[in-house]
């Protein structure tokens, strides 16, 4: 595994942790997501779509690597395919947990007395 890939993954994890805690991240941006003109706010729907696209891409990449290995394609690597499958699984589990938290927050808001 390339060191730059590890650094990129760590940067994504740190940015995700900072966003979750509400702290601003200096110099960290999500690729493909633009800030709106209103005080540097980020469009929630754009962030959500970008995240779902990333999960989908990782799932498709893992499936392709596994299929290449199963078909005996030259250069197909079992280790790389398995690591890709695990990364895709972790990203899917993370997405499901975020969805569960959003549903819980929505239910809490709906159950608040007016």
UniProtKB/TrEMBL annotation:
<keyword id="KW-0282">Flagellum</keyword>
<comment type="similarity">
    <text>Belongs to the FliE family.</text>
</comment>
<dbReference type="GO" id="GO:0071973">
    <property type="term" value="P:bacterial-type flagellum-dependent cell motility"/>
</dbReference>
<keyword id="KW-0966">Cell projection</keyword>
<protein>
    <recommendedName>
        <fullName>Flagellar hook-basal body complex protein FliE</fullName>
    </recommendedName>
</protein>
<dbReference type="GO" id="GO:0009425">
    <property type="term" value="C:bacterial-type flagellum basal body"/>
</dbReference>
<dbReference type="GO" id="GO:0003774">
    <property type="term" value="F:cytoskeletal motor activity"/>
</dbReference>
<dbReference type="Pfam" id="PF02049">
    <property type="entry name" value="FliE"/>
</dbReference>
<dbReference type="GO" id="GO:0005198">
    <property type="term" value="F:structural molecule activity"/>
</dbReference>
<keyword id="KW-0975">Bacterial flagellum</keyword>
<keyword id="KW-0969">Cilium</keyword>
<dbReference type="InterPro" id="IPR001624">
    <property type="entry name" value="FliE"/>
</dbReference>
């Amino acid at each position: 595994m390339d060191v730059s890939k590890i650094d990129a993954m760590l940067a994504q994890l740190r940015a995700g942790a900072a966003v979750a805690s509400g702290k601003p991240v200096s110099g960290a941006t999500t690729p493909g997501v633009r800030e709106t003109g209103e005080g540097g706010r980020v469009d929630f729907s754009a962030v959500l779509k970008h995240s779902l696209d990333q999960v989908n891409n990782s799932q498709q990449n893992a499936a392709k690597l596994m299929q290449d290995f199963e078909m005996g394609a030259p250069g197909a690597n079992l280790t790389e395919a398995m690591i890709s499958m695990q990364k895709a699984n972790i990203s899917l589990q993370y997405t499901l947990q975020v969805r569960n938290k959003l549903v819980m927050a929505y239910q809490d808001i709906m159950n608040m007395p007016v």
